Structure formats: C-alpha cells, structure tokens
C-alpha cells in the first residue's frame, strides 16, 4: 500500500501514530498523522481504542486488550505451534 500520492509503502494502512517516551507523548507528525498515546488492536476481536499510560505497556495492552501479538518472534512462534 502507498500513503496518498507519496512513495511511502506499508503492508497495512496507517491509521495512527503512537510516539511515547515513558509516559510522555513525543510531539510529532509523520505522514500527516499527529503523535499520541492511543492505538487500536484487532478490528474484530479487540476492545476498540486503547489508551496507553506509558510506552512500557504497549506490548501487553496490545496483546490483552487488542488481541494482537506485536512481537515478531513471539508471533512467529505462536504460528509455528499451529
């Protein structure tokens, strides 16, 4: 996928931008998206919008509330078990 008429390419569409350093939101804009502390997990199985209190909880909240395994190696291992 491409973002607008630019050259940036992604496997999936970009809907949000999380940039945190600890509990602090790092201000910034990438591809026209403003940084924040909100993300979403799986579109059907997740619990909707996830507000992160700090960067350290990203992986666990995405897994528990969003039903998404963010760690590539962990996701691969889980798939290989099937």
Description of the structure:
The chain has 82 residues and is an alpha+beta fold. It contains two helices and six strands; from the N terminus they run ββββββαα. The strands form three sheets. A two-stranded antiparallel sheet has the order 1-2. A two-stranded antiparallel sheet has the order 3-4. Strand 1 and strand 2 (24-25) form a beta hairpin. It is globular and about 40 Å long. The relative contact order is 0.15.
Low-confidence stretches at least 5 residues in length (pLDDT < 50)?
none
Which structural class should the secondary elements be placed in? alpha+beta
Largest sheet data = 2 strands, antiparallel
What is the percentage of strand-forming residues?
Answer: 15-25%
User: Distance between termini?
Assistant: 29 Å
Q: Roughly what percent helix?
A: 10-25%
Q: How many extended strands?
A: 6
Shape, please?
Answer: globular
Query: What is the succession of H and E elements?
Result: EEEEEEHH
The neighbouring-strand order within the major sheet is 1-2
Mean pLDDT: 92
Count of DSSP H/I helices: 2
**What gyration radius follows from the Cα positions, in whole Å?**
14 Å
């Amino acid at each position: 996928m491409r973002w607008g008429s630019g050259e940036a390419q992604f496997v999936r569409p970009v809907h949000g931008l999380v940039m945190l350093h600890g509990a602090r939101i790092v201000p910034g804009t990438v591809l026209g998206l403003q940084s924040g502390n909100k993300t979403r997990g799986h579109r059907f199985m997740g619990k909707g919008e996830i507000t992160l209190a700090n960067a350290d909880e990203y992986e666990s909240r995405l897994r528990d509330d969003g039903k998404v395994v963010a760690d590539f190696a962990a996701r691969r291992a889980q798939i290989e078990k099937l």
